[in-house]
Amino acid sequence: xxxxxxxxxxxxxxxxxxxxxxALIRGRGEAQVRKSGxxxxxxxxxxxxxxxxxxxxDIKTLKAxxxxxxxxxxxxxxxxxxxxxxxxxxxxxxxxxxxxxLARQDYTLEQYVDExxxxxxxxxxxxxxxxxxxxxxxxxxxxxxxxxxxGMPFHTVAVEHADxxxxxxxxxxxxxxxxxxxxxxxxxxxxxxMAV
Length: 196
Hints:
alpha+beta, 10 strands
């Protein structure tokens, strides 16, 4: 199994283009374009990143925040549907919500959402569509994306790498430091009216 490396991330969200910064990014080469439909599960009790993408339950936890307010996200779970019951305690621990009574040995995505997630008032399902334009700049993954949260449109830019100094150097070289660093969870909770 490949070693999991927690990356440091800087990200911001807005409604329109990021102007000069976006032009600097797009001027650094041709983008790799990816489209995806994802399901995020937000919890009023947690800021863990819990989503379903490519038929996998994918969970990342916030490991650290440094002096530059960069965030280090640590992947802790990727589990395929149907989800086995032995995985569900870890999933609900990430939501910081008690594990419900389990009536099945495994759960399809539909059963998981309808029977285990939607009945919980602390949890909210948000459908997310993404069109991501990825670049490699100074060794960092740099992304410009158009996303929708339950149909609400947003624009986002991100810089990621395992080395936080390299992330900040790249953020500054792209003149992004004037924008607020906002992660997916904060942006999404603000958009749907859930307290952060």
